[in-house]
Amino acid sequence: MSVPSTQEYHWQSLARLPSGRVYHSLVEVGAHMYMLGGCDAAGRPSPALELYSPEGDRWMSLPPMPTPRAGAAVAVLGKQVLVVGGVGENQCPLKVVEVYNTDEGRWRKRSGLREALMGVAIVVKDGRTLAVGGMGPDLLPRNILQQYDLRKDMWALLPSMPTPRYDATAHLIGNKIYVAGGRQCKRSVKAFELFDSETRSWTTLPNMPCKRAYSGVVWDSMGRLSLLGGLRQGGGHHRSKFTKNINIFDTNQGVWLKSEETVPMKTKRADFAAAVLRGRMVVAGGLGHEPLVLDTVEAFHPQKKKWEKLAPMATPRCSASSIVIRDRLLVVGGVNQVLLSIWLSIFLSIYLSRSLYLT
Hints:
The chain is about 0% helix and about 40% strand. It has strands spanning about 10-15, 25-30, 30-35, 50-55, 60, 75, 80-85, 95-100, 105-110, 120-125, 130, 145-150, 155-160, 170-175, 175-180, 185, 185-190, 190-195, 200-205, 210-215, 215-220, 225-230, 230, 240, 245-250, 255, 270, 275, 280-285, 285-290, 295-300, 305-310, 320-325, 330, 355-359.
């Protein structure tokens, strides 16, 4: 299958966000983008709910969430948007669960999690939401797997995950939920595990080849997981380093590809946008190893087996949220100036950013 040339991709500046935001959540309902919560320029969790319409290139403010929060897990169940956990105004994890009905335009409070959690990974299967892991108020990672039935408004416990963690990547293929990476306190983990919803059992898969944080995560249509770049965590006296290397797991073969079978990106970067767009992996922005905030963009050509440069973004940024809607990559908000010495733990300032799309 042929893929687009680099000339067929371009950036376009869209309507500015109502306010600068980071750690917000994006979902698509009916080809419209909903932006939920996040932190404002002062670092306060926001209750805001905004709708972006691609046709009119405009933002519309909708009824705010009852509970301000950042970093929430979000799932779409038909015309309803479920918002789970996250970080609240007191900078602590939340157990609050709320749902927004896009037809009615109103919020409802639903049954909360069994305990307050942030960094939950979430997938939807057969109309039910499965929430994996998280970090509790005691800052310890959890191995909990919970299933939510919207119709009954009930959470049920499923068999626990072998490795406690938060901020993991979860992905559903058929009846299997793949859970990769994540963190335990400040340390990244290499754990890679699979939950089979038919047998209700966990299987331990081959560990990720290395510990990395703030990497790009991409699942393609062939059932392959790609971990791109990020901050590779050193052990002992070794310092963590930015990397451009890639690890790819093939779910059909059940193995990580050998390093000689993968092609590293052109630029070392972490905390960037990554997606599959029209058959090509695309990475945009992030933090470079200088370190500096990047505007550079590149795309992988699967036939040529090489990364090619695309036009840069108009606004350099890291910590942006992104989503693909109708073959367009929207990169929303983020940070374009950071206190580099403590970038991994706190941002110095958050600037008003533009929303961009790549076609």
